[in-house]
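Problem: given the chain below (467 residues), write out its structure.
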Amino acid sequence: MVLKKQFSFSKQLLKSIWYTFQSGINLFTLLKSVRNSEHSYLNDGNCKINYAQLYHDSFSVIEKLRTFHSNQIDDQVVLLADNSFDFIKYLFALSALSKEIVIISPHLSENQLETILQNYRSTLIITDHIQRLKNINRQSNCYSFDEINSYIPHLATKRFKRNNGKITILSTGTSNMPTPVERKVNITKIWNPFIELISRLELLRYSSCQITVPFYHGYGLASLVLGLFLKQDIHFTGKFSSKAVAQSIINNRIDCLVILPAMMTKIIAADYQALGICKCLISGGDKLEPTWVSFILNQYPTTKIFNLYGTTELGICSIATQQDLIMNNSTIGRFLKGIKYRLHENQELQIRCSWIQDRSKREYLSTGDLIRIDKNGLLYYLGRMNDSSNIGGHVVHGDELAKKITAYPSIIEARVIIYKNEILIHELRLKLTLKTDAVFDQDDFKNWLEKTFPKYLQPKSIDYSFK
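Solution.
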């Protein structure tokens, strides 16, 4: 079976190279190369479509976009949506039209979205959150998937120009306000790490995957692209639900689960047996606690576990294989080949690598992470240089968040405490000092927090006292 998949993989490589010469390096070229895989499919939990249908539907979207919006689709288009078939189709269609695709999480606060969209005033926005955006002050044209899907195109099919794609992901980066991280598709840069990912994660052994990470997250988007290239059966949901994912694993006998550590513990709580059905767990986006590594190794002996370490700006930097984690349950593995690194005296990690950044090959990029390397070459994550923490794949600065909270009337001082709960997941506690004569309505304050900050920055508890 493995030999058959290796042959299929080699054939797919040659086909992809051929289509790349024809159409350029973009996501639609990838879809074109796998469109005859009629037995491979995508499943959102409610509906299933095969790769041939996905190609056909994406091509139909291209035809609509060519004449929609007064026949002038901006060179830069914002895609603001949850996981869905529409998200995937429009992602490929826009790539075929040589547009820069700016991907934004729809779950940022209203204030954050309004601030971000000020930088994209002339940019077309395509979304599945049209009602929410109507309440936000913006100058961009905004359309829902349904509006464009119902449009009847008036243009005959044309051949595509050869073009290269570009994707910009709005990520939290090193602050609480999302910053752009550009990803240019360059096969000469990504070839070696692409092959190494497949080899070290043993991906040719698996026929199906469940992606629990949002596609607007770099980790989730990369998983989708890699799954398509390998012609796997891809399962996903619009929003994460531990019960829905556990049921999908059981019903579909999922081979490979792509997941964040916080989601893993919730699936175990929802259905203890589910993870044991998977052949492989790929954890990334956040630190995987050693306690949970040992738990999984002991409780699910037939399930392999891998842990990925990376940064928002750089992408994946290291992989901890099953063997690495058996040697030491707290390791984040070994660097990918081609990565040059150096550690400062304070153990801050700096990295230089041509395929994970569009900077000079001679320039080292600071990660802000403190790292230790043992005699066997295994890496260990020691924390951050500043007060920041990783919560669900997002970098959170406690002091910066506290300063912004003091903008609320009646608050003199705010203190953000980042702690681990009983299942070792980071959460926020908020301690407030109020003016002596202040009238404080906690419900009104919570509403202000929800409007000002995204869901992952909402505190689990609020304590307050008067000065």
